[in-house]
UniProtKB/TrEMBL annotation:
Domain of life: Bacteria
Compartments where located: Cell membrane; Membrane
Keywords tagged on the record: Cell membrane, Membrane, Transmembrane, Transmembrane helix
PANTHER family per the UniProt record, alphabetical: MEMBRANE TRANSPORTER PROTEIN MJ0441-RELATED, MEMBRANE TRANSPORTER PROTEIN YTNM-RELATED
Transmembrane intervals: 32-60, 72-92, 98-119, 183-200, 206-225, 259-279
Organism lineage string: Bacteria, Bacillati, Actinomycetota, Actinomycetes, Mycobacteriales
Membrane topology: Multi-pass membrane protein
InterPro entries: TM_pro_TauE-like (IPR002781), TSUP/Inactive_protease-like (IPR051598)
Protein name, per record: Probable membrane transporter protein
Entry's family note: Belongs to the 4-toluene sulfonate uptake permease (TSUP) (TC 2.A.102) family.
Organism: Dietzia aerolata
Length: 326
C-alpha cells in the first residue's frame, strides 16, 4: 500500500512537470519503476497504460485553455501511435542501450539550441512565424513514438524539443499539442505491450497509482503553461532537456559518481540562473511596454473641460476659428 501511495505522488509530480514543460512523465515514472526492480518492458507498459488517462485529462485541460494546435495533433498523433506500437512489440528482444548515446547527444544538442534561442533574445520577445511542415511532423511522430515505448519515455523530449527548436510554434502550444497527441501514442504503445507481454505481464496496481496522481494535477499543469511567458517556459524546457540528457550520457559513459554529481549540480545551477534571468527579462520588457503605453495614452488622451478639448500638450485649437490661420 505504501508503494502505491508513493507512486501516486510520483505520478502527480511527473504530470506536473510533463503538463507544464511537455516532457518527463514517462522518464520519471519508468526510472522509478526500474529502480524498484520492475523489468523495463513491464515498467514501460505500466507507464503507458497510466498515460492513457493522464494524457486524456491533460489534453482536455490544455484544450480548454487554448494551448492546443489541432493541426499538429492530427498530423503527429497517428505516426506516433504506429511508432509506439512497433517499439512496444519488440522491446523485449531489442535492447535500447545501443540507441542511448545517439538519442541523448541529439537531444542535448537540441536542448542547447532551445536555450540559445530564448536566452539570446536580449530585450526582445520571442516571435513564432510560419507553420511546421507535414514532412517534418510525420517522421518526428514515428521516431518519438518508437523511442517512447523502447525507453519508457521519449515522446515529450523528442517532440517538445524538436518543435521548440523549429521556432514556428509558441511554447505553450508546443506543450499542449504534444501532451494532447500523446493520448493516441499511449494507446498505440499499450496495445503493443498487450501483444508482446499479455495482460499478466503488466502491473495494473502501479499503473492505477500513477494514473490517479497524474489526473489530479493535470488541470494545474495546463494552467501553468497557459500563464508562463514564452521566454520563461522555453528556458525551463531547454534546461530540463540539457540536464536530463547530460545525466543520460554520463551514466552511459560510466563516469564516476564523484564526477557526475558535481557536473549535474553545476548544470542545474546554470539552469536556475537562466530561468531567473528570463523572468527578469520578461519583467523589464513588460515594464518598458507599460511605460510606452502610458506615454501613448498621455499623448492621445483628450478630455473636454468647459467645452474645450484639452490634450497633454494643452488646449486643442480649432483650425476653422483660429485667428492666426485667418
Amino acid at each position: 500500500m505504501r508503494t502505491l501511495i508513493v507512486l501516486g505522488f510520483v505520478g502527480a509530480i511527473a504530470q506536473l512537470i510533463d503538463g507544464s514543460l511537455g516532457m518527463a512523465y514517462g522518464v520519471t515514472s519508468t526510472t522509478l519503476l526500474v529502480a524498484a526492480g520492475i523489468a523495463p518492458a513491464a515498467a514501460s507498459a505500466s507507464v503507458h497504460f497510466a498515460e492513457i488517462g493522464t494524457t486524456l485529462a491533460s489534453g482536455i485541460s490544455h484544450h480548454k485553455l487554448g494551448n492546443v494546435d489541432w493541426r499538429i495533433v492530427r498530423v503527429l498523433a497517428v505516426p506516433g501511435a504506429i511508432g509506439a506500437f512497433a517499439g512496444a512489440t519488440v522491446l523485449s528482444s531489442l535492447p535500447a542501450d545501443a540507441a542511448t548515446p545517439v538519442v541523448g547527444a541529439i537531444l542535448l544538442a537540441l536542448g542547447l539550441y532551445v536555450l540559445y534561442r530564448f536566452l539570446a533574445l536580449g530585450g526582445r520577445r520571442p516571435e513564432f512565424r510560419g507553420r511546421v511542415r507535414t514532412g517534418f511532423l510525420v517522421p518526428l511522430g514515428l521516431v518519438g513514438g518508437t523511442l517512447d515505448s523502447l525507453g519508457g519515455g521519449g515522446w515529450g523530449p523528442v517532440g517538445t524539443t524538436s518543435l521548440l527548436s523549429s521556432g514556428r510554434v509558441e511554447p505553450r502550444k508546443v506543450v499542449g499539442s504534444i501532451d494532447t497527441s500523446e493520448f493516441v501514442v499511449a494507446v498505440g504503445g499499450s496495445l503493443g505491450f498487450l501483444v508482446g507481454l499479455g495482460a499478466a505481464g503488466i502491473n495494473w496496481g502501479y499503473a492505477a497509482a500513477l494514473l490517479i496522481g497524474g489526473v489530479l494535477v493535470a488541470p494545474l499543469a495546463a494552467w501553468l503553461v497557459k500563464h508562463l511567458p514564452a521566454r520563461v517556459l522555453g528556458t525551463a524546457a531547454g534546461g530540463l532537456i540539457v540536464v536530463t540528457n547530460s545525466r543520460t550520457l554520463l551514466l552511459w559513459a560510466d563516469a564516476p559518481a564523484s564526477a557526475v554529481a558535481p557536473i549535474l549540480v553545476a548544470l542545474a545551477a546554470a539552469w536556475i540562473a537562466g530561468i531567473v534571468w528570463a523572468v527578469r527579462a520578461e519583467r523589464r520588457v513588460r515594464d518598458s511596454g507599460a511605460v510606452e503605453r502610458g506615454a501613448w495614452d498621455l499623448d492621445d488622451a483628450a478630455a473636454t473641460v468647459d467645452g474645450t478639448t484639452t490634450t497633454a500638450a494643452g488646449p486643442a485649437v480649432d483650425e476653422e476659428t483660429d485667428p492666426a490661420r485667418a
